[in-house]
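Extended Data, panel c. Modelled sequence:
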Amino acid sequence: MPRKPRQARFRLGDINELKQIGQDREGDAELADVQRWVKIAKQTTTLAAHKKNWDDVLGYFEEHGVEDDDLHLWRSYRSLITQRKMGVYNDVLALTDIIAVDYYREFFDSPSLEGMLRRYAQNALPLTFLGHSEDYYYTYTHAHEHPIALVSIPRKGTTSIWNWLALPHEIGHNIFDNVIGYERELGRKIRTALSNERFKIPGPRLPYGLKRTALMEIIWNSWLDETMADIYGTLFAGPAFVMARQEDSCDIAADIGGAHITLWDVKGMDMMKHPVCHFRVCICTEVLRRIGFAGDAAEIDLRWEALHPKITEYVWFDPSTGYKELFRISRDELTRAMNLLLDVVLDRKMRVLNNESLLDLVRYTPEEHAMVLQIEWELTRKNPRFPKGARPRMVLAASRFAFERDPELADLIQENAVKGIKKLKKNIKPK
């Protein structure tokens, strides 16, 4: 009779201990991955300008780990390094890097900001890469010092330079995030300005006992980050930026079901971060008026009114309750609040900006506009000549004017804009 096999004996470990050891090993593997790719980045020719920063990148992830938001951030770095090493998109990324650096340096190289407290490393410069999104631009902001500012650009816009006018918006995000205490100080001053006013907000009783007296403050607090990015975009690129935002807002209006509609998931306390798309353009044109481009703002407003002739109020819906209407705010009342906000944002001196106002530090000037218009005509010529002293960012603005004037010349405008950005790179002063 065959003998029965002996029953195997084993020991079960403590599941929490096993999980902890497993997580530690996964963390070690992620850091090993960072080390591997940082080494590759240092050896990549097209990343040579950032060579001294890669040890700081490694140090960041060694200190903060590679999990949650930082895991997402690291994967973006890895995509960036892979693209630069492969070289497939070098023609595009070389140009978007130049533009991003031009805007970034235009603000942070200001002598008035010497000694300002920054979240990013002092020598940080933006790098662009083609991100996972096919449809939108994205900026990776973070809570700790970081040596490189990352901007993700969509693949679909790589052959239309005039659509790169989202870049000054993204650099605006980096500026607003970089200056330590900026959002806190600005938010406090905006809340004070709004709390001194009473706004007419009709509609049924608000859910969860929300007070109407604080509603405008809640709305602008939710919109502040994106509004600031648009304000920076307008101050950097002037009317060309607003033209591009009009086109974007048409797409958003189509997606959401109307230019006058916005969403607020009250249960999750999650309001859309961008201002309602029709009003978003109105904010930008008001900024244009305040910096001396009232005529351009009026032309842009006329086109906007032709597309949306009857919008006199904006409607908030709650998607968590079957798109129930929450309330309406008239365009006039929201405009009144906007003007109070812009008084603070543009003209109020900020302690965190070394007691300078935003308009003391950056604005699109008539002199720059004249040069942009000169470049616009050159972009539609077979042999363009670019003005002495022009900057790459001016080519970007000019490409929008040229495309709007002669869209059938899109290929020539693209070709000449590429030449201009490369040629004028030398005019970005060394840091």
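The chain is about 55% helix and 10% strand. This feature is highlighted in the accompanying rendering.
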